[in-house]
Amino acid sequence: MRVYHAIYRLDFLRNYAMMDHPGSVAKLVETGGSPDFFDMYGEDRNARRLMAKRLLKEEKRFRTITVEPTAIVCEFERADGVAIDTLTEDRDFVRLCSIANSVLTEFNILKLERAGLRLFLLGKNCESAKDAVRACRALLKPAVIGEAEEILGAITDVGFGIDGASDANISYHLKFGPYIGLQESGKYFGSINELLSTDFTADTVMDLDLYENKFAFTTFKVLEWCIPHLSLAGKVATTVAKAIVQEAKK
Fold first, then answer.
1. Most CB atoms closer than 10 Å: which of 69, 89, 105, 130?
2. Cβ neighbourhood burial of 178 (10 Å; 0-12, 13-18, 19+)
């Protein structure tokens, strides 16, 4: 399972210094990367929101950042995916996190209302999408499947949704199931779904949102906060893939 789309969002109480100095915010965004890191900039003056992005069609890559007085949102998409354990070394992700960190530092933002990392992972675990559907279906109780089919008709797709929190107060939304082909790529990609190769062979998708609420961001840099969360993501991705592989072999 590899990360093909990542969203990193930081929410905080309204920062009036950011509202008073939009030029300083814009400068941090524009100078935070290399000169060609972004090539499109936008502004929503009513919301005091600044946006920067770049789509590299030949490399099938997209990156963007949005900064407003209550939130910073970093996002990237990659057609070739990134291994979970190397995400903190990926040049796009590292640079986006660096820009976010510079904004927090410049405006002395220490207390966060929420920090969340949402990952869309895809992988090849079965011979086909049909096998992935069958494997996921097997993870449900047969009685539930049988009764549902009798009432509604034949099942063509199966998905799981799980919410919870760890003892370390890291909350999560986890969804996973079969990836049935490019026809549903729009669910998981916003900017490169039309650039995906027609021989893209993933059959399993996982959507994992890991987040913490109301804490002080005093000892970590933005990128460092991601490390333990990515470790958790890697473990659960391995667990999900293993369960699907085992059922597919039966």
1. 69
2. buried
